[in-house]
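Hi support team,

I'm opening this ticket because the web form for multi-chain structure prediction keeps timing out on my end. I have pasted the exact lines I submitted so you can reproduce it. The total is 1134 residues across two entries, so I didn't expect it to be a heavy job. Is there a limit I'm missing, or should I split the entries? Thanks in advance, R.K.
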Amino acid sequence: MEKLIIFLPLLASIISGFFGSKIGNKASQVTTSSFVSLSAILSIYIFYNVISNDYSNNIIIAKWISSGLLDVNWSIKIDQISSVMLVVVTLVSAVVHIYSIGYMSHDPHQPRFMSYLSLFTFAMLVLVTSDNFLQLFFGWEGVGLCSYFLIGFWFKKPTANAAAIKAFLVNRVGDFGFALGIFLVFYIFGTVNYEEVFNQVSLYKDNNIKFLGIELNSINLICFLLFIGAMGKSAQIFLHTWLPDAMEGPTPVSALIHAATMVTAGVFLVVRCSPIFEYSPIILGFITVVGMTTAFFAATVALVQNDIKKIIAYSTCSQLGYMFFATGVGAYNVAMFHLFTHAFFKALLFLGAGSVIHSFNDEQDINNMGGVYRHLPYTYSLMIIGTLALTGFPFLSGFYSKDLIIEFAYLKGNNLGYYACGIGIFTAVLTSIYSWRLIFKTFHGEFNNKKIKLSNMHESPPIMLVPLVILGLGSVLAGYIFKDLFMGYGSFSEFWNGSIFFLKPLTTDHPPGYILYLTPILVTISIPLSYLIFLKNKSFLESLTNSNRPIYLFLKNKWYFDELYEVLFVKSSKFLGRFFWKKIDGLVIDRFGPDGLSNLFKYFSIKAVKFQSGFIYQYAFVMLIGFSIILTIIIIK
Amino acid sequence: MTFPILSSLILLPTIGALFVLFGRSTSNYNSAKYIALFISVGNFILSLYLWYLFDKDTSGFQFVEERKWLEGFINYKVGIDGISILFVILTTFIIPLCIISVNSTIKHRLKDFIVAILLMETMMIGVFCSLDLVIFYLFFEAGLIPMFLIIGIWGGERRVYSAFKFFLYTLLGSVLMLVAIISIYWITGTTDVIKLYELGIDVNYQNLLWLAFFSSFAVKTPMWPVHTWLPDAHVEAPTAGSVLLAAILLKMAGYGFIRFSVGLFPVASEYFVPLIFILSLIAIIYSSLVALMQEDMKKLIAYSSVAHMGFVTMGIFTMTPQGIEGSIFQMISHGIISAALFFTVGVVYERMHTREIKNYGGLVSVMPRYAIVFMIFTLGSLGLPGTTGFVGEFLILLGTFEVNFTVATVASLGVILGAAYILWLYRRVVFGEITNPDVKKLNDLNNPEMIILSFLAVVSILFGFYPDPLLSTTSASVGDLIDAFNYNVKIFAASNL
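Hello R.K., no limit was hit. The queue was backed up. Here is the completed structure from your submission:
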């Protein structure tokens, strides 16, 4: 059955990819959607089995690479973490497949699109069910590749192509760290299998190695390098620049890959490797800092963006930051919980945004929208649900998971924890403001679009709305239903045993009441507040941006990361490339190498030619001189 | 006496070449091609049979044949082990594909071209099978002559300059190697490789001899800074020539490093590891950066070859099982993928007669099948897991990491650059709007092209997912080589105390 879950999407992808033109659009859509849906149903069954029967399994499919001590298999590992991921991946994927049938209905390349989506699902499943680092890396690069294909799906758009390459390359930078991490794991433990590595970690906790001339603790270094990989894939600050650009891809892609599944792979990695990370408090602290910085940074940028998808993309970035700082304070299960709930409401928001964009004929700027909530009633109400869930409105799914993260940050009990807790609360407020700004500017106020008439606005077809409803249900209920399971309350107290490792058992204390109530209250207050700022009293906003122009520009330009990287990496590589090619290869090596040598020969042969002038008296003269020199030498001797 | 399978492999192409050259019916171009194809496919099947017979658990040489030539001096001696057999199969695999491609690429003197290719097959199989230094040298150098002719006769506009540059570089290195081989004979009294492995070579001479061999292999690899002949040679060579050059000719040097530099001069090899590492790192980073800025497709791929071969030389001198097996694997993988990339460039060059990247763009709209196969090789080149490119690169880096963290870290940066230049190439050629009106008229891949490229694609994916047949073939011999190396180095270290 596990094999079916994994290989059904692959099969679907192959059918749709290679035979799509023969079987037609409809058939490839039905095949891919039904195969992935079947895979989702089986995953839910497995998940149920894991919850109720403590089911776990480790299937070896075939040998992969074996050389010297290295021995790696293709495998399927089912445990608590991977079963949660299975459900998230296959469920969101199935929903997105169905939604795409409607969303992509005017596109000439539908089979190709469906094929990529299914292929992505396959790669993601390979990633989460691996029992070793190398297969994880395979899935890791595989999802990156599919993401590359899908971002650049509209291959005629130069911006889409640029964004696709950027996504691939920035991820490669992360993968560079990740790969080094794997090398180091192999170097220290002699294996890349999770079980075997995790069993040995405690033996090596005081092991030091010299890396780039510095003496470092090997566990710390492993964690740091693995986390670099996680930062790339999960778009954490410094390696986040690809995610907003990735919005060039079709919106279903953004929902599936850049919100619910692929970008959470980094969080998954850290949770999966909790037995290593637990021995590295320094790196956990580092993760907390990176996580909360990203959460804060992305939220500030999201405040001033105008592209509806970019706002949600920065919001994703920010929520991923939350997940990381949950792992950083050691609450791995809470990170998984937020990953789980986030998949529902963020996919909902993206697909909802897709529905809006669809209705506005591919308009993405929220300044050109507004006043359409009556015309798009379903999309509107579902977007509201998604927004409420995202902002952590009481009793929706985000409320449970996000507030728990803030609580655990507080309960960490050190300065970093308090600091993270504060940033967490502040960011939650920012989240609420930018989310409501999006809603108000998109659906309320005046209709600002000049290209289409308000009366022509129409709701999306049912095939796009049903998936939204499914995700809407998830956004409302996932938190409430699964909180006991994820938190290990009550009868589930043993749930994570065996897959997540806690060096010290997670605290069961509760923070003081004012912390508990602070976030929900602030989040609720910010709704009317944003209504005032963005809808009622626009002059206030204008004066605010005008009086703080530099800050506004700083945020608007996303803290100038892209400009900085352009100079630092892109321009300088190009310059170096050209310099090496023209100057070193051309002017140094060739000039003094082969060309120089041949010129030298040519030079001497031309000189030699001059001797053969054909005049007897010249020859006689030279002979005479030579003869007299020889004579002189002999005489002097 | 058993069936001389290796000699058959070596001689069969020559017999084919003679047939083509003197056969009466071969005045017709097509029949020349079919004879050659028949012979080379037969040779490929024979080499697969050889692989089937090959005992993977034995580390020593198998199928050894020995014939006296000059009594007491040079014997014709051939044999294979786990290190060389894969190169033989790579050669016999690539040659038929080259012959299939000939139809569309070579317009004049087709018969001579086919003769050159078949002769080259003989020489290259000979190189990988020779167990006598003199025989090795003869095959190694004779292999240059057909290549020289292929560039010089069937090449592009600057073919004479390129052929000359190619010859000058390779000859210079080779002369030193010849001197070294002669001195080995004076020192030890034999040029038989198996005997030399047993006897060992006096440590005092090893460094000089190593350098002499190195100068020849470094040029052929090519290593920085003696790499500038490669881009020129590739640019001017016809497609089949580029393919042979990248897929097989470069591998002779990598093979030479393993078989002779490491095998015969272990102490010197240990001594020169830093030199190799530095040159390899420069090759990886430097040529990746240069590749990024190329405007000519073939030059770009040529520079990428330099970078990929940088990984190979680095892997060999880690002296770890992963490093050396990875290097052999990387050479096979590069043989397949770079061959495929040169074929893919050849396909559009035939139609457009330009290699300038800026004249392309938007090919996917008119050549969808081409776009797919090109993507597969692009991914192979950037080392995506699931292709052969990944397995080789990963094992090499893993092996290097065990020896030197810094070197492995810097080399890993090359992996990022490797993705950059090849994806950018792909994007500029295949994606985007069509800007050049000529592109609109292009036809998608025809059947021969499809056959060639699908064979290569299947192989590169198959062994990416299941590399075990290749890795298990090499492991015993590589293990033995490393044991011998460590033993020698240890003895030398002990004698110095």
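A quick check on our side: Chain A touches chain B through 55 residues (CB under 8 Å). Let us know if the file doesn't open in your viewer.
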